[in-house]
Write a structure and sequence with these properties.
15 strands, five-stranded mixed beta sheet, TPR repeat, about 650 residues, alpha+beta, about 50% helix, about 10% strand, 25 helices, Glutaredoxin, Serine Threonine Protein Phosphatase 5, Tetratricopeptide repeat
């Protein structure tokens, strides 16, 4: 089988090799059959619909149609065509199939010789070497041979035209296919491959893959089938498997140019530029200059990325990894993991975690793949171990480091990480055991040993801060909390512990600030809400401000006097005041919802004013329509909503509670 053709689907070129030159090609005109049951294109009016044929002593004639009218040698017995001089049949459809046409021609041929050619499921007709003895019309009708778009029978006897069914995947795998008057079963790998090609062109990669698997099972040594299977796997984003298929194709046929080319392009996507160059430049420079430019761009950015990583320039490493991916290495696991590592070193743990989920899966990993001196598969576990350490999952970190060490036992960098992860995990376990035994000083020393090996570990800083808190060393606890938050800004444990330390040291402004930050991260945590409330009260008292009737949570408080209303407006934090009347239907519907908000947001003061009972408050606040809700924050009105919907009211309460 020839290895030339389009880069996606292999095609059988035996038919092409058997064709003669275009010299003496007969003229032809296209038939205007106008049949509603076959997808044949109608032709302009005025064209004839007859074709000259030759009678034969055979009881029926069979032929083959493929493409437009061409000359082809006639071999074998009357009415059959072989695709080459050796007599092998070629009935596969090329990848550039066009809409089916039916043509008429006038030519000369020896007596009693029928039109020759191939009738394929595409419905295209090739007619060659004919002489005119007498003419009669060809009629679509019933017959014994199924040719994809109906049957062709000789003679003028009219018969109904029945639509032909296209060959399906199931038929290709399990049922015989009639081609050229003879039955071709699914044991013909070329026919199975042809249907697979059709599935591939439709984007049905899973169906195409099944058919290529069937073809390979029928002909295991055919390199083209392996290459086609690699194309289907690529369409399914199973790049690692596609690489293996290309390698198998080259094992079967080391000089198969199509497999070399496909493998080279896959290796560029995987970021393996050295191996890609060998396959793309097997016979010199690549035929496509764009491919060479892509290869060189990926190579340049990957080299810069590896250099920046060795220097610890993580911003540059991140930038160059992105550039290499954009240049063409879009399915490279090690470039994806390099981005994760760079984000982790830049203390962007959340971004590192989200990028880790997006790293391409190229399993099985191709052999001889390395990045920055580490085997690619080992580098994946190398970075995962660091992520697990940063998240405090020390047991998982040890397992990942062990896997990396087994995959690449010769890498010094992997060996050092394995040793570090193991020692840090032991220090953390020892510190936890001592803390549970209330031996806080010794526990702090154990955590300090872990920090000596991993000085950026927020979990260990937070654990040591807990020891200082238990020992009453508030300042040192705050310092360790600050370090933990430096490496993980959204880590709530050190933020909560620092707020508690500020409470102990009566740094009320700092405590309020910490609790407000916690409220944003934990909006439904009642303990945080209550702590914030008490810190706000303490801050107000420390400033000498008068604080009256301060209670946390509870029910909606009803206001009966202007003095009570003024005191409520001046409460620290957020106050929500609901102006209503008993008789109003909307107020009756809104009141239960306000009660539910009071329960869900315990740090906010909810008050209710009946303007029928206290008209002076309604007049002073200029309330003309009920229900009306006003929101105050630290004595200042920040929001007024007239006839609010439930959604708007809850959004406003949530917004100002943060």
């Amino acid at each position: 089988m020839s290895h030339s053709g389009k880069p996606v689907i292999e095609s059988n070129n035996r038919l092409r090799d058997s064709l003669t030159s275009d010299i003496n090609k007969p003229d032809f005109r296209e038939l205007d059959l106008g049949s509603p049951v076959s997808p044949l294109r109608s032709q302009p009016r005025g064209l004839t619909t007859t074709t000259t044929t030759t009678s034969s002593s055979s009881s029926s004639s069979s032929g083959s149609v493929t493409g437009r009218i061409r000359h082809a040698p006639v071999t074998g017995r009357s009415g059959s065509v072989t695709g080459s001089q050796s007599g092998s049949r070629s009935d596969s459809v090329t990848s550039n199939s066009q809409q089916p046409l039916i043509s008429s021609s006038s030519a000369t041929s020896p007596a009693n010789v029928l039109p020759t050619g191939n009738i394929c499921p595409s419905g295209k007709i090739q007619i060659t070497g004919m002489t005119q003895s007498r003419s009669r019309s060809d009629v679509l009708g019933s017959g014994t041979g199924t040719y994809g778009h109906g049957s062709i029978m000789r003679g003028g006897g009219g018969s109904s035209v029945s639509p032909a069914k296209p060959i399906s995947t199931r038929q290709a795998l399990s049922s015989p296919v009639t081609v050229g008057g003879s039955s071709r079963s699914s044991s013909d790998p070329e026919e199975v491959k042809r249907v697979g090609n059709e599935m591939y062109k439709k984007g049905l990669f899973s169906e195409a893959l099944k058919l290529y698997d069937k073809a390979i099972a029928l002909s295991p040594t055919n390199a083209a089938y392996r290459s086609n299977r690699a194309a289907a796997l690529t369409g399914l984003a199973r790049i690692g498997e596609a690489v293996k298929e290309c390698e198998e194709a080259l094992r079967l046929d080391p000089n198969y140019g199509r497999a070399h080319h496909r493998l080279g392009l896959l290796l560029i996507r995987l970021g393996q530029v050295d191996s890609a160059r060998k396959h793309l430049c097997l016979l010199g420079k690549p035929s496509d200059p764009m491919e060479l430019r892509k290869l060189e761009a990926v190579e340049k950015h990957m080299s810069k990325c590896a250099d920046a990583r060795k220097l610890g320039d993580w911003k540059a490493a991140l930038m160059e990894a992105d550039a290499a991916i954009v240049s063409g290495a879009d399915f490279s696991p090690h470039l994806g993991m390099c981005k994760v590592e760079a984000l982790l070193k830049l203390h962007r743990l959340d971004d590192a975690q989200s990028n880790l989920l997006e790293v391409p899966k190229a399993e099985p990993f191709p052999a001889h793949c390395s990045f920055s001196g580490i085997a690619c598969e080992a580098y994946t576990y190398f970075v995962k171990a660091q992520i697990e350490m940063a998240l405090g999952r020390f047991e998982n970190a040890v397992m990942a480091a062990e896997k990396a060490s087994k995959i690449d036992p010769r890498s010094n960098e992997v060996a050092m990480l394995h040793n570090t992860v193991t020692l840090v995990a032991r220090a953390r376990v020892r510190g936890n055991d001592l803390y549970k035994s209330e031996r806080y000083t010794e526990a702090s020393s154990a955590y300090a040993e872990g920090l000596r090996l991993d000085p950026c570990n927020a979990i260990l800083y937070c654990n040591r801060a807990a020891c200082w808190f238990k020992l009453g060393m508030w300042e040192r606890s705050v310092e360790d909390c600050n370090q933990a938050l430096r490496f993980q800004p959204r880590y709530t444990k050190p933020l909560l512990r620092r707020a508690a330390c500020n409470n102990k040291m009566e740094r009320w402004a700092a405590a309020v600030s910490d609790y407000e930050a916690l409220r944003k991260e934990l909006p439904h945590d009642k303990e945080v809400a209550e702590s914030l409330f008490h810190a706000q009260v303490a801050l107000k008292k420390s400033r000498g401000e008068e604080v009256l009737n301060m209670e946390f949570g509870g029910e909606v408080e009803e206001v009966y006097s202007r003095e009570q209303f003024k005191a409520a407006m001046n409460l620290p934090g957020v106050s929500v005041i609901h102006f209503s009347t008993v008789s109003d239907h909307q107020c009756k519907q809104l009141s239960p919802f306000v009660d539910s908000l009071c329960t869900r947001y315990p740090s906010i003061h909810f008050l209710k004013v009946d303007i029928d009972k206290c008209p002076s408050i309604g007049n002073a606040e200029n309330v003309r329509v009920v229900p009306t809700v006003k929101i105050y924050k630290n004595g200042t009105r920040v929001k007024e909503i007239v006839c609010p919907s439930r959604e708007v009211l809850e959004y406003s309460v949530r917004h100002y509670s943060g």
